[in-house]
């Protein structure tokens, strides 16, 4: 049965690649060389707008383990070493309430049995285990302690090779089912064939459609650009908060229902157990608790290649001939900060003959034209945009805004053939419905005084000083740097074809998984642009 499924997956993958090849031959997709393009706004399809419904996880927890200490919430992520992959999972149940007794991490082993596909799982790797807690000083909020989190680094892997593995404790025995993954290709030789990108997932019926469509497109790598479980939108009783009836709406602490993370991790296993998944934090991952601790669940639940950066909130990695830079919008980013200095070193050390493509990702977009979160990350843009431009970043991925938008090549709000293409993909499912209104529509331009950086501090929301919007905070029409925008749930796929051409496709949930709504070839010009 497993072999039959694997053969079917390979056949579907080949069919998708064949369709892409036909598109290339027929010249169906435009290229950025033909731009800049006239701005397009897709009319809202109100048939998909309605009440967002959460999955009924409390009555029927997805993939809840049947055997005590059986692995759940299995996920893969890349390490800084191209021959290694992190495998993470959780065993045991979380504890929640006032009088809780945490599980002993040493009571269950952390073992991965693995091998090249069809050759047997004769290799063993062992790792570490730990728990984390979400603590509140007020007795009216429920303290939480996680199940046992296991993390194993599997080393000595060959590039572009299919592996099979099981994880767990073989002495109990409590092992997972057999899962499969493919390692990244070698730098300068090839690229991951399909990189899925999405943000704003949550755990709703829309999320389910997004992830099932994404999995059907067989990505080799997934990027999640923040706003993952939305656990911070749930009150202590597990119900969605309305922000007025939570226990302490004016408290500096943030009420958050941590079991939502466990439900989300179980559901996401259909993707993360087979596709290496790299995440960057969003504002919904802050989850402030006692002693001013933040990002606790985010830091513990995911593995990161953070050896060089020294932080889980910003880091970089290679995937074949692509160098990814994941930046933190909710940690200091000014020119004197550790993040900025690390970014300078990281970009300086990129060898474009080895990794020709340079892709950056962070949560809040710089070039969104929607009313929600309009120019919210302006201070970050002021500090970092010049550095990214100087080093020739090709593509930027963001989330935060619950809609889709793709820019023309842009730098400092000016059309620039060497600027990056900025792509917002923040509508993976979420718990808050879609963003519909645009800042350039009559009556929608926010008051600049309401757009300071509420997390890092500072105010940079000044009026434009040049161009069609000079003297104003917003344009009075869709800005020329905005090429395409649409309010729909969905995700995107990046297919890097060679050193200069990459196909970007936006997929909407209301369409078939193989039908893209927006597609363009992003073309690098290394002889013309800085790199």
UniProtKB/TrEMBL annotation:
GO terms for molecular function: acid phosphatase activity; metal ion binding. InterPro entries: Calcineurin-like_PHP, Metallo-depent_PP-like, MPP_PAP, PAPs-like, PAPs_C, PAPs_N, Purple_acid_Pase-like_N. Residues 1-27 form the signal peptide. Residues 71-183 form the Purple acid phosphatase N-terminal domain. Keywords: Glycoprotein, Hydrolase, Iron, Signal, Zinc. Belongs to the metallophosphoesterase superfamily. Purple acid phosphatase family. This is Purple acid phosphatase. It comes from Gossypium mustelinum (Cotton).
């Amino acid at each position: 049965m497993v072999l039959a499924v694997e053969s079917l997956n390979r056949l579907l993958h080949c069919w998708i690649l064949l369709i892409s090849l036909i598109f290339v031959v027929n010249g169906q997709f435009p290229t950025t060389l033909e731009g800049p393009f006239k701005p397009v706004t897709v009319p809202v399809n109100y048939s998909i707008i309605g009440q967002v419904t959460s999955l009924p996880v409390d009555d029927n927890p997805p993939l809840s383990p049947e055997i005590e200490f059986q692995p759940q919430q299995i996920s893969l992520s890349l390490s800084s070493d191209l021959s290694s992959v992190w495998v993470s999972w959780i065993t045991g149940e979380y504890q929640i309430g006032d009088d809780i007794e945490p599980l002993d991490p040493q009571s269950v082993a952390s073992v991965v049995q693995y091998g090249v596909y069809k050759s047997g799982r004769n290799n063993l790797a062992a790792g570490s285990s730990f728990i984390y807690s979400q603590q509140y000083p007020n007795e009216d909020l429920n303290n939480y302690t996680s199940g046992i989190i296991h993390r194993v680094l599997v080393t000595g892997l060959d590039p572009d090779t299919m592996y099979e593995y099981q994880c767990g404790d073989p002495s109990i025995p409590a092992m997972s089912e057999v899962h499969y993954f493919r390692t990244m290709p070698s730098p300068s030789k090839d690229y991951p064939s399909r990189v899925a990108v999405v943000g704003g997932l949550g755990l709703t019926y829309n999320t389910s459609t997004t992830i099932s469509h994404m999995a059907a497109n067989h990505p080799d790598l997934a990027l999640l650009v923040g706003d993952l479980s939305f656990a911070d939108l749930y009150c202590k009783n597990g119900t969605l908060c309305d922000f007025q009836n939570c226990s302490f709406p004016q408290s500096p602490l943030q009420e958050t229902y941590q079991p939502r993370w466990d439900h989300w991790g179980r559901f996401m296993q259909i993707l993360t157990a087979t596709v290496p998944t790299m995440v960057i934090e969003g504002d919904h991952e802050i989850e402030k608790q006692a002693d001013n601790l933040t990002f606790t669940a985010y830091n513990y639940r995911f593995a990161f290649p953070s050896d060089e950066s020294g932080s889980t909130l910003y880091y970089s990695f290679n995937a074949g001939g692509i160098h990814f830079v994941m930046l933190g919008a909710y940690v200091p980013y000014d020119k004197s900060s550790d993040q900025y200095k690390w970014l300078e070193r990281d970009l300086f050390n990129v060898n474009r003959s080895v990794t020709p493509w340079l892709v950056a990702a962070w949560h809040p977009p710089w070039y969104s034209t929607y009313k929600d979160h309009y120019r919210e990350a302006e201070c970050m843009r002021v500090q970092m945009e010049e550095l990214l431009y100087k080093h020739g970043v090709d593509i930027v991925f963001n989330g935060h805004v619950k809609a889709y938008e793709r820019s023309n090549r842009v730098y400092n709000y000016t059309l620039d053939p060497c600027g990056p293409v900025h792509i917002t993909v923040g509508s993976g499912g979420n718990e808050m419905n879609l963003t519909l209104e645009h800042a350039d529509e009559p009556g929608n331009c926010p008051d600049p005084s309401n757009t300071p950086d509420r997390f890092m501090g500072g105010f940079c929301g000044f009026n434009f000083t040049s161009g069609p919007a000079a003297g104003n905070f917003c344009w009075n029409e869709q800005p020329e740097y905005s090429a395409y925008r649409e309010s729909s749930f969905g995700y995107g796929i990046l297919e890097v074809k060679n050193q200069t051409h990459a196909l970007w496709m936006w997929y909407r949930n209301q369409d078939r998984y193989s039908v893209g709504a927006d597609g363009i070839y992003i073309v690098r010009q290394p002889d013309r642009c800085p790199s």
